[in-house]
Amino acid sequence: MTLRKPFFGGNWKMHHGPSATRTFVREFMAEYPPREDRTVVFFPAAISLAEFRATAAGRADLLTGLQDVHWESAGAFTGSISAAMARDAGASFILAGHSERRHVFGDSDDDVARKVAAIAAEGLVPILCVGEKLEQRDAGDVETVVERQVQEGLSRLEPGQIADVVIAYEPVWAIGTGRTASAEDADEVHRLIRGLLIEALGEGGARRIPIIYGGSVKPGNIDELLAAPDIDGALVGGASLVPADFARICLSGQR
Ligand code: 13P
User: How far, CA to CA in Å, does 59 sit from each of 25, 64, 69, 191?
Assistant: First the structure.
């Protein structure tokens, strides 16, 4: 699969149960016709995944994923879902290490690495999320933090598996705050991440991997972000809950 065409993810977080999902999907399909030149993936709440897929049944272009999984494939882990179950339910991508998982639920770098490995082992695409907090940015630690999160997040993968990941750079201070990183600042971090991938995979492999930006992406700022050389798409929270807004975002960068 060539992943590196513009890549748009809608992370619904804890929004849209099955009924709201049905309404959303109908409206979104009316606003966004199928296109081959971009990848669009939705991350509904796990409980809404089946409803999403049933409502979008005729739309093979609308891919789905989950927001998180446990690293074990089965067992006594009340409340958890495994990558194997996600695959069975039709997911093709899974987020790992989203900022809210790290900072609200306490996922460590090693937890994230285990999840990334479990996702890849199921043949699904892990979207490794990384990003610094405001105090880390202010202290000049962006590079150290992002480098550590990328290296540790990928540390349990075989080199062959690293070729099939997506990286999402989501500065914590830009998530849900209305404050977006400038395209220039975000691109600088994306270049740093690209450099780490080049070390792991060589130039050719690293250039195939989508590095997407997240943090207050809206219809009004997506075009500028996407125009930056190393920003390959976006992971969108709030604006992905509104069909017309997310359709506009997903249509950005048309040629
Ligand atoms: P917002 O777009 O609401 O800032 O959320 C970003 C995000 O966390 C996507 O994963």
Answer: 10, 11, 25, 34
